[in-house]
């Protein structure tokens, strides 16, 4: 009886998962372990020699490396903070507005806001660089039309403004992603919950703050960790708008551009694949710590709000 009731092993699951696992292993897992291995070696007389954690010691103690690494890390943190405090709250507010049944043309608004997310980084970087140019850009004239031309300054050309300006450009491009995810989360709230709130006299924005917002906190948590991972992997926009040197004077240098210069070299600087792999490993560890912090500390507290 026991043998007859024993279920056969679900081999079909392995068959369907195998292609995805093989592709993921080939393009993600193997390069990751290759990078970790490369960070433990150093080229000595054109021979790869095992040096253990000596490359990490160089990265943190050698002034030629530690200063640039700390500068890139600091800029990356600021890049992430702007996305967290500007992009995600705006995405939540846009989703709340678009989920209102009284709003017309919501499909058009969703499409218009989401379109920039599918644009190429190259197009976005060069387009905004031209728009903000003090010589041939349209920004000075547009600000002049509303009497704000005196506030215009070459934001991408000043050290104190360049990184913030690029961060806001990135916010403009990707605000559609948190908007759509939160919009989907709002639509998934059961109608019974909304009807019960309306019976208690909770409507409008009061209903959003007291009822809907606590229910979509898990989705906001997922968006926050995706923002963290995406920002600490950023590279394209900075490289397109400011080049590999991340000017002016490395004020827009983040870990991605620092890794690029270290690994491949730039202009007269010779690339060092081992130190580049060391920087890439540090980026991986920073992202890993952030993701683990979310999974083990934040997500557990947000599960109570899930249906």
The gist of it:
The chain has a single domain (52-301), classed as MetI-like fold, CATH 1.10.3720.
Helix and strand topology:
Layout: H1 2-5, H2 11-38, E1 41-44, E2 47-50, H3 54-61, H4 63-98, H5 106-114, H6 121-131, H7 139-145, H8 159-174, H9 176-187, H10 191-199, H11 204-215, H12 217-231, H13 236-242, H14 255-264, E3 265-266, E4 269-270, H15 273-302
Antiparallel strand pairs: 1-2, 3-4
Helix pairs in contact: 2-15, 3-4, 4-8, 4-9, 4-12, 4-14, 6-13, 12-15, 14-15
Could you characterize the architecture of this molecule?
This protein is mostly helical and 307 residues long. It has a single domain (52-301), classed as MetI-like fold (Orthogonal Bundle). It is 70% helix and 4% strand. The protein contains 15 helices and four strands. It has helices at residues 2-5, 11-38, 54-61, 63-98, 106-114, 121-131, 139-145, 159-174, 176-187, 191-199, 204-215, 217-231, 236-242, 255-264, 273-302, and strands at 41-44, 47-50, 265-266, 269-270. It has a two-stranded antiparallel sheet. A two-stranded antiparallel ribbon has the order 3-4. Helix 2 (11-38) crosses helix 15 and helix 14 runs antiparallel to helix 15. The longest helix is centred in the N-terminal third of the chain and has 36 residues, at 63-98. The protein starts with a helix and ends in a 5-residue tail after the last helix. The relative contact order is 0.12.
